[in-house]
Design a protein that fits this description.
238 residues; four-stranded mixed β-sheet; two-stranded antiparallel ribbon; 2 domains; single chain; alpha+beta
Length: 238
């Protein structure tokens, strides 16, 4: 749930910057079927009350006023911190959550945490991330990795989107159709790879298990890079 929420939040913050979409409407779209989203700004980076949780629409409005930058998502994991550039508090929080929304120029970042059926966002300072891949680059890389991994694995998990209980987030209308298609494909592949990594099946040979996990890890990494690129505004016209 935090990863899906982070993708939706970054995309809708960008949509508010580049289209007439209001923070109120954007916040409702980000919340979707969740019970609620609340924002904790202990350091006052968004100018919100540091002693109480704020509503998502109010926090988004504050961020859009204070931050003159497009927004990106990072999906870090141990050994794979890109595109994060610190500081350590932000990196640790993002690693724990598995996702973070941050300004491309650096500033107040949003770290999600699931609280039952709701999401709580913690605002932490982030240095400017090292964004490199465009949506077109990530799309090409993902296609190449799928082919390469498919040659190495006979059971490459390429199930249909309908088999996934959690559908991919829907990008706002100002994003191009290719960005939405990339996000949907990357979402399906990342979840399929994650599920397959949790189950080594009936494989008993240690070398075979290692080779399978390496291949699936490459697929997951490429899919998560594509998820990040799909919501980055520079790739919105792709």
């Amino acid at each position: 749930m935090p990863v899906s929420a982070a993708l939706a939040l970054a995309a809708h913050l960008n949509a508010c910057r580049h289209s007439p979409l209001s923070p109120e409407v954007a916040a409702r779209a980000v919340i979707g079927d969740h019970a609620a989203h609340h924002v904790v700004d202990v350091e006052g980076l968004l100018g919100l009350d540091p002693l109480t949780a704020s509503d998502l629409d109010r926090a988004m409005a504050a961020a859009l006023v204070l931050v003159d930058s497009d927004w990106a998502v990072a999906l870090p994991r141990p050994g794979r911190l890109a595109p994060l550039a610190g500081p350590p508090t932000l990196t640790a929080g993002a690693l724990d959550a598995g996702a973070v929304v941050l300004p491309a120029a650096g500033g107040p970042a949003w770290v999600p945490r699931a609280v039952g059926p709701a999401i709580q966002w913690q605002i932490l300072y982030a240095a400017a991330p090292r964004l490199t891949d465009t949506a077109a680059d990530a799309d090409r890389q993902l296609r190449e990795v799928v082919v390469q991994v498919g040659r190495r694995l006979s059971d490459l998990p390429l199930g249909t989107a309908e088999e996934d209980e959690a559908p991919a987030p829907i990008l706002p209308g100002c994003y191009g159709s290719r960005s939405q298609q990339l996000l949907a494909r990357a979402w399906r592949l990342s979840r399929a790879a994650e599920t397959a990594l949790a189950d080594d099946g009936d494989t008993l040979h240690v070398h075979a298990i290692s080779a399978r996990r390496n291949a699936l890890g490459e697929l997951r990494d490429a899919a998560e890079s594509a998820l990040t690129a799909a919501v980055t505004w520079t790739g919105a016209s792709a």
